[in-house]
Amino acid sequence: MNSKYFQHTLAHTLTFVGRGLHSGLPVRMMLQPADPDTGIIFVRSDVPLFQSEITARWYNVTDTRLSTTVSNRFGVKVSTIEHLMAALYVCGIDNARIVLNGPEVPIMDGSAEPFVRMIQQTGTRQQKAERRAIVIRRQVRVEEKGKSASFMPAPVPWIDMTIEFDNDAIGHQELSVPMDRALLACDVSAARTFGFQEQIDTLRKLGLAKGGSLQNAVLIGDNGVINQEGLRYEDEFVRHKVLDAVGDLSLAGMTIVGRFAGLCSGHGLNNQLLRQLLQQEDAWFLTTVSGAEEYWTWTQSELPNAEKRSQLTAI
Ligand SMILES: [Zn+2]
């Protein structure tokens, strides 16, 4: 069977050293291989061992202001996990232990690219267990103050993202991409996080963005992008929102076979959507990635031709 149907882990341990975007604290992070069906587990090496593990799943998300934070029942946290989680998805890593000596994942250059590059260099190892999938059977939608996020049935994982900013440097941007690992690695993983100069003072007063700089974020001022090097992609902002969504949705802990559509959707709404979805048990079923493919092949063959064509063109 094709390797895409099987779980993978890292071929070797990797180490990253950097600073947290919000805490500004130095942090050393190791990505270690893990057994099949472990999922992604954060381990805080600076707290007592029995309190140290936090499973990277949707139900452990406790804060979504500016970044995604997961916590365990002892209140031990790891924040700004979304770019690393996106990198693990993009590289096809299903199982890993992420050992950190602080409360925040290093921000690196504000994108997922440094993680993706190092994981690709070190390689992955296929495991015996099959990848699991959640197949979307009907629409599930959440909305809040003109923002929304939804899942629709679709034969392959897909992301549509639209952003609207009342700022000329960003404005209206849209992106529609399959959640194809090679494509996301090239077209999305290097898109950096961004912020507005006018917000920096407020954030710093709240004790946030202490580690933020022009080396790890795109900063937008009155006259547009402040970074001298400019943008990495013309539409880097919407690409970064797609990257965030890939990371946030990976907290389902398995492949979501369906189409995600976000309108100005951020970490909070992405997590609310996962919670809504998993509560509504008639909206999905569990299978393997190979099982999801079989289901969709069968479903397509059962549809009348006209409907089949419209479903196919819709993706
Ligand atoms: Zn981000």
Quick tags:
315 residues; alpha+beta; lpxc deacetylase, domain 1; 5-stranded mixed β-sheet; binds zinc ion
Structure commentary:
- It is a single chain.
- The protein is an alpha+beta fold and 315 residues long.
- It is built from 8 helices and 21 strands.
- The chain has helices at 82-90, 113-122, 181-187, 197-205, 236-249, 267-279, 289-302, 305-313, and strands spanning 6-10, 14-19, 26-33, 40-44, 53-55, 61-63, 69-71, 77-78, 96-100, 124-130, 132-136, 140-144, 147-152, 158-164, 172-178, 194-196, 218-221, 224-225, 255-257, 259-263, 284-288.
- The strands form 6 sheets. A 5-stranded mixed beta sheet has the order 2-3-9-4-5, with helices on one face. A 5-stranded mixed beta sheet has the order 12-13-20-14-15, with helices on one face. The chain has a 3-stranded antiparallel beta sheet with strand order 6-7-8, with no helix packed on it.
- Helix 1 (82-90) crosses helix 5 (236-249).
- The longest helix is centred in the C-terminal third of the chain and has 14 residues, at 236-249.
- The chain is globular, with a radius of gyration of 19 Å.
- The protein binds zinc ion.
